[in-house]
Amino acid sequence: MSGKPKLHYFNGRGRMESIRWLLAAAGVEFDECFLETRDDLLKLQESGALLFQQVPMVEIDGMKLVQTRAIGSYIAAKYNLYGKDLKERALIDMYVEALTDLDELLMHYAFQPADKKEQYLANTVDKATNRYFPVFEKALKDHGHDYLVGNKLSWADIHLLEAILMTEECKPDILSAFPQLQAFKGRMSNIPTIKKFLQPGSQRKPLPDEKFIAHVKKIFN
């Protein structure tokens, strides 16, 4: 049996994507088991592997972990991406929670009705520009290091880069007023493990298209 973590989810981004990012940045190879049909989901639920009947689920170190935040915390701690002490961990948690909120906004965009998409996107871009990115711009400037917390790569850095790239897919010039974030993006994108994950053919998932959205809706009936 493979010793690699095994990720159970759809063949798309969703709530599993940040976990893929975290494992890839840590240099950890992982296998994926995709839910292709509604029966796949029902079988997984009936097996007892899903504590709350929900995916994502990650098999790692003999455990079947659910709940995205719990999975991320475990992986970050295991691979030394969770700060050196409780104070650093608290900062990382704050940043990750905020970025998860932004990710949720971005993820839900693809599932909006056609007549709601334009306004939804405008609201999301507004929040990214005026609520979230100014905080990270200031945090990087005030901290004065290459990373958000301490002076080494953490879960917060990885999640921020993911969020930046996702928002740029919606609005390519969104970082125009944020020079610290522009520089941060360049630094993080050139970390060897992350650079590899950003290359074509990696396990990073593309933007969801209409086919993927229909597929997910069908599985959830």
Automatic annotation (TrEMBL):
<feature type="domain" description="GST C-terminal">
    <location>
        <begin position="85"/>
        <end position="207"/>
    </location>
</feature>
<keyword id="KW-0808">Transferase</keyword>
<dbReference type="InterPro" id="IPR040079">
    <property type="entry name" value="Glutathione_S-Trfase"/>
</dbReference>
<comment type="similarity">
    <text>Belongs to the GST superfamily. Alpha family.</text>
</comment>
<dbReference type="GO" id="GO:0006749">
    <property type="term" value="P:glutathione metabolic process"/>
</dbReference>
<dbReference type="InterPro" id="IPR003080">
    <property type="entry name" value="GST_alpha"/>
</dbReference>
<dbReference type="InterPro" id="IPR036249">
    <property type="entry name" value="Thioredoxin-like_sf"/>
</dbReference>
<protein>
    <recommendedName>
        <fullName>glutathione transferase</fullName>
        <ecNumber>2.5.1.18</ecNumber>
    </recommendedName>
</protein>
<dbReference type="GO" id="GO:0006805">
    <property type="term" value="P:xenobiotic metabolic process"/>
</dbReference>
<dbReference type="InterPro" id="IPR050213">
    <property type="entry name" value="GST_superfamily"/>
</dbReference>
<dbReference type="InterPro" id="IPR004046">
    <property type="entry name" value="GST_C"/>
</dbReference>
<dbReference type="Pfam" id="PF02798">
    <property type="entry name" value="GST_N"/>
</dbReference>
<dbReference type="InterPro" id="IPR010987">
    <property type="entry name" value="Glutathione-S-Trfase_C-like"/>
</dbReference>
<dbReference type="Pfam" id="PF14497">
    <property type="entry name" value="GST_C_3"/>
</dbReference>
<dbReference type="InterPro" id="IPR004045">
    <property type="entry name" value="Glutathione_S-Trfase_N"/>
</dbReference>
<dbReference type="GO" id="GO:0004364">
    <property type="term" value="F:glutathione transferase activity"/>
</dbReference>
<dbReference type="InterPro" id="IPR036282">
    <property type="entry name" value="Glutathione-S-Trfase_C_sf"/>
</dbReference>
<feature type="domain" description="GST N-terminal">
    <location>
        <begin position="3"/>
        <end position="83"/>
    </location>
</feature>
